[in-house]
Amino acid sequence: FRCSSKIELVKANTTLKLNKLYEKYPNSEFYSVENFDLQIKDKEFIVFVGPSGCGKSTTVRMIAGLEDITEGELYIDETLVNDIAPKDRDIAMVFQNYALYPHMTVYDNMAFTLKLKKVDPQVIDQKVRAAAETLGITAYLDRKPKALSGGQRQRVLLARALAANPSLLLLDEPFTGVDAPTQTTLTRLYRELAGEGITILMSTHDMLAARESCSRLCGVRGNIHLDGPADSFSLEQLHTWLHGHDIEEAQGHARTGFTCAGGALDEYGHELPDSCASDHSLSPAHTAATGGAR
Predict the structure, then answer these.
(1) With pLDDT > 90 as the criterion, what percentage of the chain qualifies?
(2) Rounded to an integer, what distance in angstroms lies between the CA atom of residue 63 and that of residue 79?
(3) Rounded Cα–Cα distance for residues 277 and 129 (Å)
């Protein structure tokens, strides 16, 4: 599969600025996100990577307007959007769960948001079919979501997002529930979309996917701990950092390697086991401090 550019993806001057964002859930003693500072350039593809509970998905949802910002300022294209409703932010988001209406066809799912915005029906049809062709799902337009595989559903979600020609595309754990070949296909697809000039922000705990897809990688633990070109971090460095060590320690591991319960990692961190030795796990204090964040 290869992305076919049939729709206009490029928006001019799509920038994002997070200025000292804080988020505290009701009845929580801790901030799930604190002092989060970040600027994303126009047409940049950036990935938040981190363990469960680090605040990466919470931050993405704040950008989308789905979580309230406790403190701080969020700017899209130099416009303060703290109090702007999600539907008015010109953002599209692909969730980790398949947010498709089961009783609707793929076509109707893709057209739904445009219909709510009272877009002309002929324009809706043009946008839906162009997005479907771009994502290679034209053959599925008359099907219901239950007839699709996980990877096909992800393409439908992405096509629905692109049909609205958003200024910013948010991807929250987009590889959840898909097999390895589908993940490889989606990773290539996201790279191609970034190459078309759309600004993309993705959150994931999958270090390999993060490193292979984006141009810039940010390690998140409540705020930004790592920030740099994706290829400047080895997978083993990221794995060590992910399990509670500072990047300096991770860099120390890059040449020597370390052993997990399932065996040793190579210098690229391939074939990572699910369960690692306890001395590389997150501390109880860190787990408690996340306050339920994702």
Answers:
(1) 34
(2) 13
(3) 50
What residues have CB less than 8 Å from 236, skipping those under 6 apart? 250, 253, 254, 257, 258, 265, 266, 267, 268, 269
48, 230 Cβ separation under 8 angstroms: no
Report the 3 state secondary structure along 8-73: CCCCCCCCEEEEEEEECCCCCCCCCEEEEEEEECCCCEEEEECCCCCCHHHHHHHHHCCCCCCEEE
**Please, which pLDDT band fits residue 216 given cuts at 50, 70 and 90?**
very high
State the DSSP H helix or E strand holding residue 3, giving kind and residue range, or none if neither: none
Q: Smallest Cα–Cα separation from 110: which of 70, 88, 137? A: 137
How many Cα neighbours within 13 Å face the side chain of 157?
A: 27
Cβ(237)–Cβ(230) below 8 Å: no
- CA within 13 Å, CB half, 118: 0
Cross-strand bridge partners of residue 38: 18
